[in-house]
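Entry type: protein chain
Record version: 2
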Amino acid sequence: MSRQQEFDFGIPIPPLQPRRPDRVFFALFLQAKDRAAFWSLQKHLCDLNGITGTLLLKERFHITQQHVGDYKRLRSKIEFAAKRAGRMVEMPAFEVTFSHAVSFPGRPAAKGRPPSRPFVLLADDGPVCELSRLIGTAMKANGLKSADHFVPHMTIAYDEKFVPRQPIEPIGFVAREFVLIHSLRGLTIYKDMSRWPLTAASS
């Protein structure tokens, strides 16, 4: 099973039975029409770099924009605040382009377990960073904590191996909406809590 992780926010890979099983985050997901191209690139890069660990399902490819939190039990006040923050964000659709791949440090070896390093596609800076900033501002306005540091990336695999940063043939997609996700950690289950279209503000 694949398990998602947002390493630029310092969030560890959950254990098999995490103490805080309910994770909430904002993200950009690929549309169905874009998945095949990224899936082909995933296979190519993993073969090229000898990645033999866990490959993420193409339906799970996403860019985390902001991590809301991990909870023992998701409370309604958190859900309410996150949804209200999402409604505050206005931004037009934009293109996200990836031009490098690299391994992040990830989870170190411990207690007989090998290291688990995410192998990711790095996105170029631009509107994707602005969206993260806008969501973070809206979260703070609604009493939630947000991250100021943001490295836009899409995890495609986990492996023991560390792959140095390398250029790739640019690949991209148009982000037309962002999503609030409730992830059941360790179970590979994502539940859509709400979606908001990326459209220009009305005049």
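Comment: The chain has one domain: 19-197.
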